[in-house]
Amino acid sequence: MQNNENILRLVENIKNKVTRPVRIMEVCGTHTMSIAKYGLKQLLPPEITLLSGPGCPVCVTDQSEIDLALELSLLPKVTLFTFGDMFRVPGTKGSLEDMQASGAHIHIAFSSLDALRYAMINPQEEVVFLGVGFETTAPTVGVTLKQAQQNNINNFSILSLHKKIVPVLENLSSQKDTLLDGFLLPGHVSTIIGKAPYEDLAQKWHKACVITGFSPEDILTGIAQLLKQINSENFEIGLQYKRGVAKEGNTSAQAYLKEYFQTSDVIWRGMRLIPHSGLAIDPHYAFYDSCIRFSQQHPPQGKTQPPEFCICGDILAGRKNPPQCLLFGKDCTPDHPVGPCMVSSEGSCAACYYYGR
Asked: Would you state the pLDDT for residue 297?
């Protein structure tokens, strides 16, 4: 209640500076789910608009990347491991679930180490781990690559579709049609990268920024801190989630990112090519890169067409909301998803379907 009173007071102070609703993007999919589950949008005054951002790694995976995973799963002797959320994401010719039903060897894993253990006891199979996530999960893949090398495992590789969160936020900040005033920055990613990588969002792009936890109290406190920055025009990287995030992040995890990955230019679903926003396997470990091992080329990213009428890309960029999709709740539901935002447990369409209708 106190947080909401503070927000109402701060909104009154801002009204003379901003002639439209203040537009705040919650970046993390866990934030999106919490906001929907606890009805936080209904608690906020109409002068504040919350937008869901590109913080769900499953949702931002481009259609061409899904198609590449499907192609790999059909190769002879390949056994593919994937996180559960990726299992039902539709590609151009079906999903991994469909491929499994057709005879492909596909397993759901809780971590890349599950796939490595399977490779160790099944040396006759080529085991591929589908690596999806941000800086939060990529270091664990680095740990797995280290163990594969130490144990001389020759039948294991990674299809790395990992992405970096800061480049896409800078890209969104540069787009005039999004009109973003601030970001609720993701707590999970920030435990790894800390505060420093976000600095340009505040200093160069003049966006209010607060690294925020996931409880309703965390989120409302984060919004209040964002409004204070907007009111004072003193933009900085606020740290609300102090119990989970150190200013410098996790330096051990950062070391694994530096050792086993290099940045790459990738397309995010519904967005143009974003330089240095991907995490590809470092050339020193090319032996464990699935694309190199199987001579698979990434399809022309962004050239494959998403499902007709699906607006997941616009939703991830903050241009539209789930109910604006013609398919939402009709042809596209959690049981029969058309787009990834309805598949993922962190997807904005799934959140809206379960809690926001």
From this structure: 67
Closest CA to 162 of 285, 300, 62: 62
Nearest to 90 by CA among 59, 111, 115: 59
Show the domains of the chain with their CATH numbers.
Answer: 1-307 (3.40.50.11740), 312-356 (no CATH)
pLDDT in tens, 155-177: 999 999 999 999 999 999 998 77
Share of the chain above pLDDT 70, in %: 96
Interatomic CA distance for residues 174 and 179, integer angstroms: 9
Helix (H) or strand (E) segment spanning residue 57: helix 57-60
β-bridge pairing 261-267 and 273-281: antiparallel
Q: Using CA atoms, how far apart are residues 311 and 269, in angstroms rounded to an integer? A: 10
User: What is the chain's alpha carbon radius of gyration, rounded to the nearest angstrom?
Assistant: 21
Q: What are the backbone angles phi and psi of residue 71, rounded to the nearest 5°? A: -60, -45
CA–CA dist 197, 134 (Å, integer): 14
